[in-house]
């Protein structure tokens, strides 16, 4: 298990997954609403096969990270990413958007070469 934090220390050259403050606040609120402890549990961000472009994002809360997960900590939110998903989403930013049309989490992924028309799936 490897960890990454915004709390300083030695420079880490690995591509990171960033989380905006808005996304972290929303996720922590939902996590605590599920009765989970934010100091142990976290948001799992993963990539799965599916959608018209081939890949789609998935998110869920987990009680704890898996042994081979990379753990990112931003604004007191722990984000767990498995090794298979990391190669597709490294360098991404997780944000929370709210507006008239839609509200929810959005992944800004620099590795995407095309997305489907509805924005639910992508190809790298």
UniProtKB/TrEMBL annotation:
One of its GO biological process terms is: iron-sulfur cluster assembly
Annotated region Disordered: where? Answer: 1-20
What is the top-level taxon of the source organism? Archaea
InterPro entries recorded for this chain? ATAP (IPR016092), ATAP_core_dom (IPR000361), FeS_cluster_insertion_CS (IPR017870), HesB-like_dom_sf (IPR035903)
Q: Which PROSITE patterns match?
A: HESB (PS01152)
Tell me the GO molecular function terms. 2 iron, 2 sulfur cluster binding; 4 iron, 4 sulfur cluster binding; iron ion binding
Identify one Pfam family in the record.
Answer: Fe-S_biosyn
The Core domain, residue ranges: 16-120
The record lists the membrane-crossing segments as none
Specify the protein name.
Iron-sulfur cluster assembly accessory protein
What is the source species?
Natrinema limicola JCM 13563
Q: Tell me the lineage of the source organism.
A: Archaea, Methanobacteriati, Methanobacteriota, Stenosarchaea group, Halobacteria
């Amino acid at each position: 298990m490897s960890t990454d934090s915004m709390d300083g220390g030695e420079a880490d050259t690995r591509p990171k997954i960033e989380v905006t403050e808005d996304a972290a606040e929303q996720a922590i609120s939902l996590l605590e609403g599920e009765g989970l402890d934010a100091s142990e549990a976290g948001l799992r961000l993963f990539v799965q096969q599916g959608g018209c472009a081939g890949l789609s994002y998935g998110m869920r809360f987990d009680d704890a990270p898996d042994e081979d997960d990379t753990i990112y900590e931003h604004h007191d939110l722990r984000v767990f990413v498995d090794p298979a998903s990391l190669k597709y989403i490294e360098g991404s930013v997780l944000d929370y958007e709210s507006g008239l049309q839609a509200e929810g989490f959005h992944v800004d992924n620099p590795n995407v070469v095309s997305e489907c028309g509805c924005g639910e799936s992508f190809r790298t």
